[in-house]
Recover the amino acids of this structure.
């Protein structure tokens, strides 16, 4: 197992490098680079894309005596533009900028945000608790609901209970997370009907003045709707996965043998089937968490005004804040790759009979 883990760890390096190469190349063709953003803010145009035909912070040609300028920069001194290029590093060739960035990342130096005057690592650490809180609660609740429901559906396969719960699950899976989040806001956060839950934020303004129980209640009050909105799709997938896993195990010979020995159905189900059927579900916990953590966080955090990593990444992409974009991309990609290894280790922990090295051989 040690050799397998070592190979997986070594594969992280080329995989991360490939991810960064592809995304760095793509940013060179995206309109409205950081310098255009600064120019647009200084001139108050509010539209960085007006007149832009190139991007990624690259200069564009204008006919006439102005020479090479950025779109919208005709009224600014060339010295100022050159200083911006130097400050942002665009006075160097793209290849040199890329390898400088990779070298800094190898030393865990992610640079500083162009527009926030704070290091990227501090920015990520500041926003991470919100996203982890949302992802962890969503994953735990999805498991607590999906496993009992999936087992019940497997035991009563083909019954009316199985039919109507399957229909409900299909509907839940079909509803986009952002649409369900808006529906929750309209119904329960003062949109048009009830105002039971707060509209935005993770805590109230007077959070620090509350007692310990008051802080816990306030936190749960704020997190309720975002967690429900981000749980719905994971809940549907896990329920069907649990049901199918249990159905596969129930049909096996050892279950028939256990029943023939006179064991009660509960003993057969929870003493024999449960351990084998839950292998893929329990071992997949890290992957489910990282899926909820990344895929749903951007929209959910934006809708509920939660200041987490998803919203940070979205705002950085809009502002072309390259250090934040690439820093968070590097961290997210590294976390995803490491979680993939942890998922394999979970399989071995749950069922020691699994040997990845033998399978690879």
């Amino acid at each position: 197992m040690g050799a397998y883990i070592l190979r997986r760890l070594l594969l992280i390096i080329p995989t991360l490098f490939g991810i960064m190469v592809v995304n760095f190349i793509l940013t060179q063709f995206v309109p409205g680079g950081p310098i255009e953003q600064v120019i647009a803010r200084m001139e108050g145009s509010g539209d960085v894309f007006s007149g832009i035909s190139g991007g990624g912070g690259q200069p564009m040609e204008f006919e006439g005596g102005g020479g090479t300028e950025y779109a919208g920069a005709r009224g600014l001194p060339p010295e100022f533009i050159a200083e911006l290029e130097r400050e942002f590093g665009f006075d160097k060739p793209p290849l040199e900028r890329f390898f400088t960035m990779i070298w800094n990342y190898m030393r865990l130096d992610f640079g500083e945000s162009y527009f926030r005057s704070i290091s990227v690592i501090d920015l990520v650490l500041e926003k991470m608790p919100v996203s982890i809180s949302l992802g962890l609660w969503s994953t735990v609740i999805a498991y607590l609901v999906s496993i009992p429901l999936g087992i019940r559906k497997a035991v009563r396969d083909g019954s009316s209970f199985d039919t109507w719960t399957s229909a409900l699950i299909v509907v839940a899976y079909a509803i986009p997370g952002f649409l369900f989040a808006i529906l929750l806001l309209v119904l329960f956060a003062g949109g048009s009907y009830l105002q039971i839950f707060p509209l935005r934020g993770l805590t109230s303004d007077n959070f620090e003045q509350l007692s310990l129980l008051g802080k816990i209640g306030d936190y749960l009050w704020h997190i309720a709707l975002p967690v429900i909105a981000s749980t719905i799709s994971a809940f549907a997938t896990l329920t069907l996965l649990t049901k199918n896993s249990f159905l596969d195990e129930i049909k096996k010979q050892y279950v028939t043998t256990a029943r023939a020995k006179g064991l009660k159905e509960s003993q057969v189900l929870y003493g024999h089937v449960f351990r084998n059927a839950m292998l893929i579900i329990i071992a997949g916990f890290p992957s489910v968490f990282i899926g909820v953590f990344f895929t749903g966080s951007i929209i959910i955090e934006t809708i509920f005004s939660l200041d987490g990593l998803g919203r940070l990444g979205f705002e950085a992409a809009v502002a072309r804040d390259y250090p934040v974009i690439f820093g968070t991309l590097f961290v997210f990609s590294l976390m995803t790759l490491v979680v993939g290894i942890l998922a394999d280790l979970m399989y071995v922990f749950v069922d020691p009979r699994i040997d990845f090295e033998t399978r690879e051989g």
The first strand starts at residue 60 and ends at 61. Residues 47-68 have pLDDT under 50 and may be disordered. The chain has 16 helices and two strands. Residues 120-360 form a domain with the MetI-like fold fold (CATH 1.10.3720.10).
